[in-house]
Design goal:
This is 3-oxo-5-alpha-steroid 4-dehydrogenase. The mean pLDDT is 94. 69% of the residues lie in helices and 0% in strands. With 260 residues, the protein is an all-alpha fold. The protein has 2 domains: 131 residues, no CATH class; 127 residues, no CATH class. The protein contains 11 helices and no strands.
């Protein structure tokens, strides 16, 4: 299918999905379930693009598998974390601030995720519509970056989950494994994931520059909007020693901690 047709279908489908999730949260009062649905829907979008794009078949397979595995792994992790639990403090704070207008404003907040998803999907569209395959070196680099990103994010999530599962760590700061070198190693590897598709677009002309948008957008969202600022505001209130952790540990890129 032509790119515009695939993009329009994807856009409409995402509107329907996030509208359904919004209706769900109206009843459940748990807007945090948008997180796993966002990851899973974007992973499925990668498959949809790979199937119906007109580009090199092998590149499309890589895009589809890469996006699907990323989306399902992250989505399942977030589902286990959010389902059956209290609403994520970030969304609960919005609900309290918005008061009587909470459901209406939450609807448009959910629709904003459609726009974000479409912008991130540029990482799938550009390589999936290139007519000639990238060289083997570029493919190998893309796969290497993708493997590192998925393995790194999964490891960071696992280390934090194990830390929180120990009752003796309640209220403490996680400095286990990757969390010793970054306050948000999971966010770091999430940003790296969106870099992985750039090599697949090498040699595709000026569209290669559009591939910079997904990782930059993700880094901006995590560092300035819905990630680090909100998470750290809550952690500083609830976890003893978090202020010291912030002074000594890199916010995003893993790096040896500074001396206190």
């Amino acid at each position: 299918m032509p790119l515009l047709t695939v993009a329009v279908i994807a856009f409409v489908a995402l509107i329907a999905i996030f509208s359904a999730v919004w209706a769900w949260q109206v009843k459940s009062k748990n807007a945090g379930m948008i997180d796993p649905i966002w990851a899973m829907s974007l992973g499925l979008l990668a498959v949809f693009i790979a199937v119906f794009a007109r580009g090199d078949p092998d590149t499309r397979v890589i895009v589809g598998i890469g996006g699907l595995v990323w989306g399902m792994r992250l989505g399942v992790h977030l589902w286990k974390r959010n389902a059956g639990h209290d609403e994520d403090p970030r969304y609960h704070k919005f609900r309290v601030q918005w008061g009587a207008d909470a459901n209406k404003k939450m609807f448009w907040f959910f629709q904003l995720q459609v726009v974000i998803s479409m912008l991130l999907s540029i990482a799938f569209f550009v390589p999936a519509y290139r007519l000639t395959p990238p060289s083997g070196i570029w493919v190998a680099l893309a796969v290497l970056i993708w493997v590192v990103s998925i393995a790194g994010e999964a490891l960071a999530d696992h280390q934090l989950r194990i830390f929180k599962a120990d009752p003796s760590n309640h209220g403490e700061v996680c400095r286990a494994g990757l969390w010793r070198y970054s306050r948000h190693p999971n966010y770091f590897f999430e940003c790296v994931h969106w870099v992985a598709y750039i090599p697949l677009a090498a040699g595709s002309g000026p569209w290669i520059f559009a591939m910079l948008l997904p990782p930059v957008l993700m880094a901006w969202l995590l560092m300035k909007v819905s990630g680090v600022p909100m998470v750290e505001a809550e952690s500083a209130k609830k976890r003893a020693g978090y202020a010291d952790y912030m002074r000594t540990t890199s916010a995003l890129i893993p790096w040896p901690p500074r001396q206190p």
